[in-house]
Amino acid sequence: METLPRETVVDVLENRLREEILTGRYPAGDYLPTERRLAERYGVNRTTLKHAYGRLLQAGLLETRHGVGTKVRDYLRLGGADLLPMLVRHSPDWIGEIFEVRRSIGALIAERAAARSGRKHHEELRELLAAVRSAEGGDAVQLADIEVHRALARATGNRVYVLLTNTLFHAYLPVRSALVRPFTDPEAAHARLVPVVEAVVAGERDAARAAAESYLTATERIMLEELA
Amino acid sequence: METLPRETVVDVLENRLREEILTGRYPAGDYLPTERRLAERYGVNRTTLKHAYGRLLQAGLLETRHGVGTKVRDYLRLGGADLLPMLVRHSPDWIGEIFEVRRSIGALIAERAAARSGRKHHEELRELLAAVRSAEGGDAVQLADIEVHRALARATGNRVYVLLTNTLFHAYLPVRSALVRPFTDPEAAHARLVPVVEAVVAGERDAARAAAESYLTATERIMLEELA
DNA sequence: GATGGTGCAGTGGATCATCCACTCAGTCAC
DNA sequence: GTGACTGAGTGGATGATCCACTGCACCATC
């Protein structure tokens, strides 16, 4: 059973506003119209608008000052990686840059995991790797694959790598369905991952780094073919 | 002129709720009390509570289903790096892990910047480097230092590195004042950065990587002495 | 003319009461 | 059994209202 997310008014309004900001209709540094005016323009209640504002504020796109107004932040300069999902949704040319970073950090993680992981991690990695092979359907394989990468990040012993892995994964989310190609064949997906896990389990840092790099390069190539 | 942020009711409530979640009073997976009950418990209006909820929802700590309730997400497993600021505020032992990642990624950025940056970047780097030396006061030096790192990230030509740098910087923010030690002497701070910028400008990848690594290790050591 | 206080208009902050939409479990006719 | 229905409880959305804050024009004072 899957719970499908529903589009609330606030969701729609949030997306609309974000789009207007990202397209430059409301340029960075500019003040937005007043809440009362904007609410009227979009045909919603001011309270509703404020809920949408709250999210964009939390996301780092807006900046509010009581008694003055709300302005657009210079998000490209000051924003964090959590902006990526919305940036990708708005203009997919981010994907290439994300892939490059993913490749470098993935290699880093594999190396650290090889250096530091313990028996518990190794067992978990092997289990999750097996799950990739037995998953059915590209979607399930892709998710199983992601679980392996999460486990690799955990195996570094550094929780920040887990969060970073999630951040980069979230960045793919908006276009995930378009990136399912490398995972249509469970056997192939499994085979590509094996060298990485084996090198990590064997504790061979350089091999792990190299294996991760070539794994990521390979899947990346297949994905980009699809997008092109 | 500096605009000091004021604590609104929503701010206070948000922090309070976040703290209760991070301390495990409301464990991951559990449903929170209903909005009406919680609002009453904290002595605020339900609308106000919803504003606070909105932010925590956006931050990935909560998950709401219409007609059912609001539950705590498994943020440590599924959350992104944007959670770091609040995690650090709650338990500072994250700092060590953040430093390690910062070091690796900083080295990565320096290497890429050395490989790809152009004359424009070089000029900007030199200017910002000079600004470190002429800054007055630990706080200003620290900010000038950050600007150099932002510029290094921009010099990679990959915008994702800029966002990642910001994310890691945001993670320090809650304890920034405690990490000002390396920046009390502008000359010393400047001198530590020089090798990094010079290697990048010279286009020497390995030297840039090594210089960044040793720079980050050095500042990190000074910072950690302070915290201990 | 420069200074500093004051009032006002406009902004966002917070609340309240109320209704709508959704979910789920229990009920009941079939 | 099966399936439609109902009601209680949940979050979603609204509109009206008041509060707190900011910036500026104004003006008395010096």
Considering the chains and any ligands shown, give keywords for the structure.
mainly alpha, 69% helix, two-stranded antiparallel sheet, 228 residues, homodimer, DNA-binding
How would you describe this protein?
2 copies of one chain form a homodimer. Chain A is mainly alpha-helical. Chain A is 69% helix and 4% strand. In chain A, strands 1-2 form a two-stranded antiparallel sheet. The first copy, chain A, starts with 8 loop residues before the first helix and ends with a helix. The relative contact order of chain A is 0.11. Chain A binds chain B through residues 3, 6, 8, 10, 47, 50-51, 54-55, 57-59, 65-66, 76-84, 94, 97-98, 100-101, 104-105, 108, 112, 150, 158-164, 166-167, 170, and chain B through 3, 6, 8, 10, 47, 50-51, 54-55, 57-59, 65-66, 76-84, 94, 97-98, 100-101, 104-105, 108, 112, 150, 158-164, 166-167, 170. The structure holds a DNA duplex (30 and 30 nucleotides).
The global form of chain A is elongated
Largest interface: A-B, 43 and 43 residues
Largest sheet of chain A: 2 strands, antiparallel
Number of strands of chain A: 2
- The quaternary state of the protein chains shown equals homodimer
| Strand line-up in the sheet with most strands of chain A | 1-2
Order of helices and strands of chain A: HHHEEHHHHHHHH
Question: Kindly, what is the distance between the CA atoms of the first and last residues of chain A, rounded to a whole number of angstroms?
Answer: 33 Å
In DSSP terms, counting alpha (H) and pi (I) runs of 4 or more, how many helices of chain A? Answer: 11
